[in-house]
């Protein structure tokens, strides 16, 4: 599947934000925003956005696999599913819809601490919302203290 891109808003830029910029030869190079905002670089970014010379790749399977360190469980191209963690007593499950950009993170766990797997599971939804790119996913995983 060919990566899809969008034109970012200046508010999305932060230290660690991953994007691509167009060179004078009309090729795209990957970049990571590595500095705090100044008047100078905010003008450069604004100009790049207005000239459509910056773009951001929408979150895809490869991005999620690289952030989580696990492979996709299913073979769907638009509805992705990932699981990781302690499979015996609990795990995280992540579902991502690549057409709607909707991400759901659930924590599945055994409701009581016993020495064996009871087969009963409770689920806690940790996040249900829109995630557009890899930088947003990384930030979310840090905020949720996952990975």
Any descriptors?
147 residues; alpha+beta; 4-stranded antiparallel β-sheet
Task: Return residue spans where pLDDT drops below 50 for at least 5 consecutive residues.
Answer: none
Question: How many strands appear in the DSSP assignment?
Answer: 8
Rough outline: elongated
Strand order of the largest sheet: 1-4-2-3
The computed structural class is alpha+beta
Q: Which percent band covers the strand fraction?
A: 25-35%
- Cα Rg: 19 Å
Percent helix, as a range, is 10-25%
Q: How do the SSEs run, as a string of H and E?
A: EEEHEHEEEEH
- Main beta sheet: 4 strands, antiparallel
Q: Taking all residues together, what is the mean pLDDT?
A: 87
Protein model, in words:
The structure is a single chain. Helix content is 20%, strand content 32%. By secondary structure, it is an alpha+beta fold. The two termini are 27 Å apart. The longest helix has 12 residues, at 39-50. It is elongated and about 60 Å long.
């Amino acid at each position: 599947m060919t990566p899809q891109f969008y034109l970012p808003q200046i508010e999305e830029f932060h230290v660690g934000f991953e994007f691509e910029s167009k060179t004078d030869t009309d090729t795209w190079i990957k970049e990571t925003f590595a500095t705090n905002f100044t008047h100078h670089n905010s003008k450069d970014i604004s100009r790049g956005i207005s000239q459509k010379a910056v773009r951001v790749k929408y979150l895809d399977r490869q991005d999620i696999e690289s952030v989580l360190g696990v492979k996709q469980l299913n073979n769907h191209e638009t509805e992705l599913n990932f699981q990781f963690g302690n499979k015996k007593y609990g795990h995280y499950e992540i579902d991502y819809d690549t057409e709607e950009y909707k991400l759901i993170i659930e924590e599945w766990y055994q409701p009581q601490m016993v020495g064996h797997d009871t087969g009963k599971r409770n689920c806690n939804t940790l996040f249900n919302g829109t995630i557009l790119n890899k930088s947003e996913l990384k930030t979310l995983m840090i905020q949720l203290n996952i990975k």
